[in-house]
Amino acid sequence: MSPDDIGSSGRELHRAYLHNEGKGRNSVEDNLLYPLKGAHSPPNSTVFAPLGDVPPLRELQRHPSDPFVVMAAFPPNGQQAAIWHLQTGQLVAAPIGAIALAWLPDGARLAMIRAAEDGSTRCEVVTWPDLHSIAQCPLALAPGQPVDLVISPRGDLAACTWMDEGSAGVEFLTITEDAVTQIDDAGYEVSTDVITRSVFSPSGRYMAFGAQDRVVWWADAYDQPAVGGEYEIGWITILDWQEHEFRSVVLDEVVANGWLPDPESETVMLADPIFIDEDHLQVSLPTGSARTFSPRPQ
User: Which of 33, 200, 250, 263 is 20 to 30 A from 286 via CA?
Assistant: First the structure.
């Protein structure tokens, strides 16, 4: 996709960023939006088996202790999630209808968002690696589609991200030993479909995600330089689960006259936020700088 193909809204670029469209690659380093890190990093020569006839393009989560990774592939009929072996690249499990998968902290249970043929979706918790169903519940979402699932470090709360044309949000579910339940009136919606993944703090008290009104935030077109000055790139929304409160932190940046995105990085989006510890949340900006702040109200 060339800069000439990108309109002022940048929605096509946003989708390419999320789905790595058109890359046509399946090596470890090239095909993952989220770089592989950790104890089970495979050699660069590892090739992951395709899901159907398409390669996995997006890493979602690694198993807490074993060399398995959840990734997403994007065939024409929509996002599908499955599990691969990190070293061999073998496709290990591909639950039917799975849009998103996430292990619970114990590594013995797997939560998933599954789509049915009638268009409905549900959250289901199964055993791992046997995939025996433990509990499930229907998902009541806004008009959009679920795209991601993240589990709290405590294993008792899940955040399900959904997206639609021009809007997105997060819904929450509680998880117990034998039940999963969507929490009524606990979700949060933003009037943009340009968002990051959600992330929990180490204790599970806080959850955060980033959002932008526009992908091309510095001008009216991708190849148009900034005129210089202070720009609002986006914001971080933080949920304090203990106080049941949401708040947002605006992310402004001063850029020089003539600034354009680095063509090597092709990144104009906020990076996924990271909790350094319980009291420090960090987000990298597309300008190359980073912001660190407390999730607590100041």
Answer: 200
Of 193, 268, 192, whose CA–CA distance to 223 is shortest? 268
Residue 11, classed as helix, strand or coil, is helix
Residues 103-121: b if buried by 16+ CB within 10 A, e if exposed: bbeeeebbbbbbbeeeeeb
For residues 282 and 267, the model is more confident at 282
Cα–Cα distance measured from residue 210 to residue 218, given in angstroms and rounded to the nearest whole number: 17
CA Rg, the chain, in Å?
Answer: 19
Q: What is the pLDDT of residues 116-140, one digit of tens each?
A: 888 889 999 999 999 999 999 999 8
CA 155, CA 147: separation in Å to the nearest integer? 20
Please check the confidence at residue 179 and state whether its pLDDT lies above 90.
Answer: yes
Provide the pLDDT for residue 44: 52
With contact defined as beta carbons under 8 Å apart, do 267 and 215 qualify? no
Q: Are 111 and 156 in contact (CB under 8 A)?
A: no
